[in-house]
């Protein structure tokens, strides 16, 4: 969940399961942005990542989805705050995989016995970027080259005899921090006159091309420089556009307060024979010691996480280079010099150069030697360790908990602290860190295989009871087919059996979705079915005494907000039919038609998700009694989100359990261990609430129930 949420997840229904790699994608992009080749996750999208104040991962190591639903009512704050929930595919050593395979962060033990890594940023005072600009964020005018810098770095200047005959852009208005930025790049060929422009690209602040033109050189071309420019003789043959045409067009396009951005833009302006007073040069913006400069290709990869000027391309793409320079300037202005200095670009370049040297050495070695060397070397990681990526950028992660990673990535218990102490430490240290992992523990006594088996049995039994209804009494010779047809209109039926132990027959119906069972109780209790006025009720067991409370809480769950359940669909109805039928409903965002995970046939129900809660309420009134292809529809608020629906289905089919004709269960008192566990879970929920409340706005917070295997 994000405070001032800007996380959009495109998963619903059957697609609500994510892998640890997908979680890794999310956390990496949230923490690093476009640095270190981090990219938007494939399964969801973070908007305005640069506005994130931090990332907090709360891990409950011994707990799984099983615990969440067994103690659903106890997790009162957790389920009310966290809107996005997904089933995680099982993985061994989950915490180790989160930190990065083989990671060994070597945390320090504090006086309280907590596992902690310092959250203070490394000393940046020696970084050239920090030395040049300081640590505070500034507006774009602070990064425009001064007249002295323009002269020093060989930019065409108005009034100088050296640049006589050069055309001014006419942009003479005072610049402000809200002045528009434009990216500019040119490709040149060598002619008898010298360097002449043959391709010009200009992009606006959104990266859209305003000018992308080939230009006819004035003099005869001596060298096309195709490997760099991408220009060939054939490309220029039909071109009529002259340099003066381009100059005129640039003067028309650029507003009077325009700021041009480019990489070594002095070369481009010289080739264009133009003078522009306000320039941001990214080769100088990302400062280095001495007169050295970073290449645009390196900055694109290290800062923006994108590849440009690829080897398979012939020559550079000026539009791509102009857009990249512009994005680099926008990143610098938006993040501020301190954040850019934390990227530690010099270290990244050294690492890249070493890797390149190593690669060349490998290529020079005989094939047999390379194979032997690979056999002797330990296996290389497929991707960098998560902590390493963070530490390179100066964001030393905060790790708090009763466990720490050893060199093999396994967890070792250190029970010298309590969850309360961990919470206190987290409240102090999390605001100082941009990436934090907080581990709360229930203790090893609560993860025994016996207790887990008991929990699994209880949760499975309770879910089955909630999916089950009893209807009756019926006459002795009633038609079971009529009952099945009537109750089938509420939703997909898992199984249906006749109860014969009673004076008059009853029917036990187990549904596949919670909404169907609830709809049957609400709409058919007291109705006339198969010639009898019947009562519809759920099984009476100790675990079911709080069923009404649980149903109400599920209905109010934030994850079910704006989602309704519709039943009574015919098998002949397709998803396209439903899209057309429901298209008139206001603010409809998504439609989910559940399918049998084995046969792939769709069920006789669907879920509709609306952008606004009120639109869902309005839709309920419209749909109830609506007829679709001769079938009357019924609807109600959703109870089970996609991941719960899928989990119920899997439990039903893996256990193969059917309620049969059991009507009453013996009342059993909860064992002390489970009573104690309930109290611990309630405390844990309060800890999560306190920690969440203390977070800054725009903090991404993820809570993991990884399970023990």
TrEMBL record:
Q: Tell me which positions the record assigns to the signal sequence.
A: none
- The answer, when asked if RNA-binding is one of the entry's keywords, is yes
SUPFAM superfamilies, sorted: Ribonuclease H-like (SSF53098), RNA-binding domain, RBD (SSF54928)
GO MF terms here are: exonuclease activity; RNA binding
> Could you name the Gene Ontology cellular component terms for this entry?
nucleus
- Which terms are listed as keywords in the entry? Exonuclease, Hydrolase, Nuclease, RNA-binding
Note the Gene3D superfamilies from the entry.
3.30.70.330, Ribonuclease H-like superfamily/Ribonuclease H
Highest taxon, organism lineage: Eukaryota
Q: Which residues form a coiled coil?
A: none
Pfam families, A to Z: RNase_T, RRM_1
InterPro entries assigned to the protein according to its UniProt record, in alphabetical order = Nucleotide-bd_a/b_plait_sf (IPR012677), RBD_domain_sf (IPR035979), REX1-like_exo (IPR034922), REXO1/3/4-like (IPR047021), Ribonucl_H (IPR013520), RNaseH-like_sf (IPR012337), RNaseH_sf (IPR036397), RRM_dom (IPR000504)
- Domain RRM, which positions? 467-541, 562-640
What protein does this entry describe?
Answer: REXO5 exonuclease
Q: Which organism is it from?
A: Rissa tridactyla (Black-legged kittiwake)
């Amino acid at each position: 969940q994000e405070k001032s949420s800007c996380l959009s997840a495109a998963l619903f229904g059957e697609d609500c399961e994510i892998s640890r790699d997908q979680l890794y994608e999310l956390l990496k992009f949230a923490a690093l942005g476009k640095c270190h080749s981090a990219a938007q996750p494939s399964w969801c999208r973070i908007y305005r990542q640069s506005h994130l104040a931090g990332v907090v991962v709360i891990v409950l190591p011994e707990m799984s989805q099983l615990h969440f639903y067994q103690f659903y009512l106890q997790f009162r704050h957790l389920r009310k705050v966290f809107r996005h929930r997904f089933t995680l595919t099982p993985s061994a050593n989950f915490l180790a995989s989160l930190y990065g395979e083989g990671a060994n962060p070597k945390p320090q033990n504090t006086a309280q016995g907590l596992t902690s890594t310092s959250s203070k940023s490394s000393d940046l005072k020696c970084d050239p970027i920090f030395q040049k600009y300081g640590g505070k964020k500034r507006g774009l005018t602070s990064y425009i080259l001064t007249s002295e810098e323009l002269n020093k770095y060989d930019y065409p200047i108005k009034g100088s005899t050296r640049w006589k005959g050069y055309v001014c852009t006419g942009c003479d208005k005072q610049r402000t921090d809200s002045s528009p930025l434009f990216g500019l790049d040119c490709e040149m060929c060598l002619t008898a006159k010298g360097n002449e422009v043959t391709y010009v690209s200009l992009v606006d602040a959104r990266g859209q091309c305003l000018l992308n033109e080939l230009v006819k050189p004035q003099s005869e071309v001596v060298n096309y420089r195709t490997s760099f420019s991408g220009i060939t003789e054939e490309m220029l043959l039909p071109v009529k556009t002259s340099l003066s045409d381009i100059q005129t067009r640039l003067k028309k396009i650029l507003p009077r307060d325009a700021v041009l951005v480019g990489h070594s833009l002095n070369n481009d302006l010289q080739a264009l024979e133009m003078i522009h007073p306000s320039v941001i040069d990214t080769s100088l913006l990302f400062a280095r010691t001495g007169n050295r400069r970073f290449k645009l290709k390196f900055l694109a990869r290290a800062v923006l996480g994108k590849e440009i000027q690829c080897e398979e391309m012939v020559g550079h793409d000026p539009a791509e280079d102009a857009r990249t320079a512009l994005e680099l300037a926008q990143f610098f202005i938006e993040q501020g010099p301190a954040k850019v200095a934390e990227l530690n670009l010099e270290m990244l370049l050294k690492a890249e150069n070493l890797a390149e040297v190593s690669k060349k050495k490998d290529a020079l070695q005989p094939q047999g030697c390379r194979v032997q060397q690979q056999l002797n070397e330990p296996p290389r990681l497929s991707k960098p360790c998560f902590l390493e990526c963070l530490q390179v950028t100066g964001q030393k992660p905060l790790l708090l908990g009763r466990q720490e990673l050893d060199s093999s990535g396994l967890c070792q218990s250190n029970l010298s602290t309590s969850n309360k102490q961990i919470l206190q430490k987290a409240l102090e240290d999390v605001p100082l860190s941009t990436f934090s992992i907080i581990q709360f523990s229930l203790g090893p006594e609560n993860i025994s295989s016996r207790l887990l088996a008991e929990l699994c049995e209880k949760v499975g039994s309770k879910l089955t009871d909630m999916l089950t209804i009893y209807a009756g009494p019926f006459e002795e010779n009633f038609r079971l087919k009529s009952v099945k047809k009537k109750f089938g209109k509420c939703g997909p039926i898992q199984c249906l059996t006749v109860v014969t132990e009673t004076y008059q027959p009853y029917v036990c119906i187990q549904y596949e979705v919670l909404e169907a069972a609830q709809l049957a109780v609400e709409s058919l209790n007291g109705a006339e079915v198969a010639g009898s006025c019947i009562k519809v009720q759920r099984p009476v067991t100790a675990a079911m005494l709080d069923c009404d409370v649980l149903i109400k809480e599920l209905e109010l769950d934030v994850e079910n907000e704006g989602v309704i359940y519709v039943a009574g669909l015919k098998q002949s109805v397709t998803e396209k039919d439903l899209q057309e039928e429901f298209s008139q409903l206001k603010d409809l965002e998504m439609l989910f038609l559940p399918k049998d995970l084995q046969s792939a046939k769709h069920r006789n129900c669907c879920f509709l998700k609306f952008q606004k809660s009120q639109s869902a309420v309005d839709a309920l009134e419209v749909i109830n009694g609506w007829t679709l292809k001769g079938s009357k529809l019924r609807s109600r608020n959703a109870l089970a989100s996609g991941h719960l629906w899928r989990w119920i289905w899997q439990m039903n089919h893996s256990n193969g359990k059917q309620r049969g004709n059991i009507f009453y269960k013996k009342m059993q008192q909860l064992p002390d261990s489970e009573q104690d566990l309930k109290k611990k879970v309630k405390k844990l929920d309060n800890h999560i609430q306190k920690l969440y409340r203390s977070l800054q706005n725009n903090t991404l917070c993820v809570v993991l129930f990884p399970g023990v295997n």
